[in-house]
Each structure stands twice: as C-alpha cells, then as structure tokens.
Amino acid sequence: MPESPETIQDSQPENPGSLQANLDSRRAKLQRIRQRGVDPYPPRFQRNCTADEAIKLFEAAEAAETPDRAAGISVAGRIVSMRVMGRAAFLDLRDASGTIQAMLRQNVLGDDYAILPDLDLGDFLGVDGNMIRTRTGQATIEAHALTILAKGMRPLPEKWHGLRDVETRYRQRYLDLIANPEVADTFVQRSRIISGIRRFLDGRGFVEVDTPILVPIPAGAHARPFITHHNALDEQLYLRIATELYLKRLIVGGLDKVYEIGRVFRNEGIDQDHNPEFTLLESYEAYADYNAVMEMVESLVSSLAHDVHGSMQVAMGDEVIDFTPPWPRLSLREELQRHSGVDIEDYPDAESLTGKCRDLGLAPGPREARGRLIDKMLSVYVEPRLVQPSFLIDYPEDMSPLAKGHPDKPGYVERFEAFAAGMEIANSYTELNDPDVQRARFAAQEHQRDAYDDEEADRTDDDFLTALEYGMPPTGGLGIGIDRLVMLLTGQSTIRDVLLFPQMRSLSDDGGNT
RNA sequence: GGGCCGUUAGCUCAGCUGGCAGAGCACCGGACUUUUAAUCCGGGUGUCGUGGGUUCGAUCCCCACACGGCCCA
Predict the structure, then answer these.
(1) Average model confidence (pLDDT) for chain A?
(2) Whole-number Cα distances in Å, A284 to A142, A435, A474
(3) How many domains is chain A built from?
C-alpha cells in the first residue's frame, strides 16, 4: 500500500532541518540513550592512547611484524565525521593529538552497535578495539566496544568550510578551535614561546616574581589606567599598566636578576595590535646596561624563533623575517633625519616641533608634548621601515622618564626599542637610578600632564622614589610585549589571533547564542 | 571620534532593475558491512541584524541604531 503524502509529512518534524528540529532530535536521542540505562555523561573513561599514539603504535607494530601490540587500544575523542552504511560505519574521532578513524561493524559490536543511531557529530565517544588497516590502507581502530562520553546538544559549525565569521570565532573561541584546527596550533606555539622565555631567563639565573596587579598608583608607562575600588580599605585602586617600578624595588632589595610575565591593563582603544589587557615580560638585571640587554634580546628572540619554528626565518605576509643575530643598531636621531629630513635637534621644544610636524602634514594636536611628537614621527617615518629585526637606539629624554641619561649625548637616554615587521617588540633602557633626577623626571611628566592635557603621562610614585634613595645598582631593564612577539613568531597579523579571548563589546541581548 | 564595507537557514555563501527566499554542508525519514567532503532516494529549515520610512509591494531604496571588519584620527 503506497503511503499518502500526509503520512510522509506526519513522519517529519515540524520544521525539518531547523535549529530547533536539530536540538529536539539531539534531546530525543539523549532520552533514548538514558532509556537504555546508559549514562550519556559518564564520569570517566580509561583511554590508553591518544589518537596519534594509537596510529604510531600501530605503525611500529607493523614494522616489527608484531600486530598483537596494536590490540587492546582505547581511544576517546569528539566525533567530527560520520560515514554510516547500514551495518557498518566509519567515524572520525578527534582529540588534541589528532584524528583517528574508528570502524564500527554490527557483527563485531553486537549490542553496542545500537547506540549508533543516537550518536551525532560533536558527541564524545570512547572506543576500545584493535588497530587494523582498512582496504584503502588507512590505520583505523576496529571497535569492539563503544562508550558514549558526552552527548553534544548543539550542532557544530560546518566541517568543510569551518567557521569563518570572525565575531563568532572570537566570542565563542571553543567553536573556532573545534572547526579550525590550525587555530589551536597558534596557541600551542604561544605556550611554547612563553615556556621558552622562562627557560631562557631561568637558565641565566633570573628569578621569576609576582608583583601587585591592584596598585595605588598606576605608574611605569604612558597609558591610561583602569580604575577599581577596594571596599574594605575604602580606597581607589588601579589595574597596573606596567610592572617596572615594583621590579626595580626588588633590584633595590638585592635580587639582582628578576622578571615577571604578567597581564597589564591599559585603558585604550582596540586594534590589530592593541588589546586592553595584554601580556608583558619585564626583566631587570643589576650591573647590566642597555648594550647587554640588546645582546640578550637578540639571543632570546632568535632562539625562540629557532625553537618554535626550527628556523631563524619566519614568513610574515609577503616578507621573510630573519632573526639571525646580530641585529643592526640604528640611531633614532639619524634614522628620523634620514627618512623625514628632520633633525630633531633643530626643534628643541614642543612649539617648534609642532610647527614642523604641521609642515610635514602630520596633523599634530594643538598641545602635544615634544616626546609625543617625536613618537608620532617615528611611527610614520621610521617604524614601518624596520621590517628586519633591528634596534633603534638612544631616545630623547622627553619620552623616557625612567631611563638614565646618555653620558655622551645630552638630552638623550640610553634606551632602545627593538622592531621587526614594522612592529615594536621590545623596549629597554639603562635604568635611571639617581633618585633626585628621577624625582625631577616625574615632575616633568606631571607638568606634561597638566600643560599638554596628556592623560597618558607617567605618574609620580613617591614610594618608588624612597626605594631609589636607598640605592639601586646600575641596572639594565627590558619590556617585551608577549602578544606581539607571538604574532611575529607565528606569522599572525592581528593580536586577536594570538589572544584566546580578545576583548569584544558586550552584546546587549543573549549573544545570538540561541 | 570620522569614512568605507559587512550582517540572508545551525555553518559556508548566492540572491539580477523592488515582484512567492536559494544552494552546498549539517539535520530528519529510507537503502547500504571497507568509507574517508561516502553514495543513492525522499524531506527543506528563515524575525533576510534591530527599529522606523518610501512604495500597491522592501532581503533589495532611504533614515537611525546595534554588532563586526578595514582604513583614518
């Protein structure tokens, strides 16, 4: 008897293929699993191999002609692909090590095969079985038992095109990691870079320390702080914008070689290389100067490139960045003069330099401090040209309130910044340790804040000045933006792609998630 | 802060001059014991970002807003 169209219609859900139908279907499967007395979220599953290990073990067993060694394998992972053919099926299971194919056959699995119709893409499954090679030659686990480990209640992004929508990728990074496996590689590399930094510094006798994130005075950098409040102390506190002044207190205290890798917070805009919270490495080494730090930076960054990449050369867009040391030392004044035609010594104050910037078409604000103007000129004329790793050295004192004056160059300090791919990756100076000079520099910054409405000018930290008065040895300091370094070493062009959860504007409703 | 671009099914994307909203994957029903973007047959999913406006009629034109991206400051 032929079925009427109505009957066929009745066997279909209300809106077949809709998200709601998909959710309903998964929930119905969940119920069926439970009705069979199976826990869809069991507390544990004992695997004895990762996907990658199972395949390697099998290949080794084949090479040694000892196939028994590839029996009794237990693997687990998320189902990322399913090819079901009646009484047999092939599933691809993914764990952090990779993907392994599982072959399911009804005559082998018996009752366990009955859960197949209740499995969906995205579910976690444990498989016990033996490694075999299929007719097409693929190393595969032939399942002898199946254990559902977690039922996925929402459909995953599409398997072939992945997840492209950048907003979803950042807001729901877990979906990005599932749908775009190469994204995970970047974050694994990030972890390797950071542990490589620790190994490097620990190997040189540095001590890793933790200094306060909640601070009464947000000093040590040019930035606007985030403000918060401590209820019990009834005191306004800030999130740190740098770790510098606390680390120097530890140099005063005699630790001699200290570093901190930590999050700092700057209340400013978001773009391709700025996120309001980012990871900063700062290190301080007593009895070193900025020349010694330059050598350390070359050595550190090139060894990281080698460790992470296996090569000193890293592709970045159309360029190949070669981190092989030594990197050129370029005088800031000379580079500015070469590329802008301006000798900053001809413009000793903000007023004259503002005029010159206007001539150059740089659109300076009406009241910008001289250091800020030079910074602007650098970012236009010099920094974009610094594609291969290089050091820009000897900065004007105006823009470096914490650096020691250069003995041979009045008005300049012993400071360098390292650049690669046009991006600043390190900032360092021979530290200012004369408490009176430091006090005067802070005063100049306070004046800059008032006279030029420069909210980012540095702030006086009297407790730090007291520490300096007890005596700080000659010291070389360093700051490296870890996120930008990771960008460079992994070839990513936006900071969002090296931050697992980049800052996003909050959504007013439910986040488009339902 | 300004300019430009984007927002269509769970995902990836089409949608012509304003005239019934489209495909692939995913999903649902069926077949299938070596597939691998499985295949075959059947099903077709939607607040076209939100709110206004113009129009007989708006995914499309106009305005505002939201979110995102790029460029500029």
Answers:
(1) 92
(2) 57, 18, 10
(3) 2
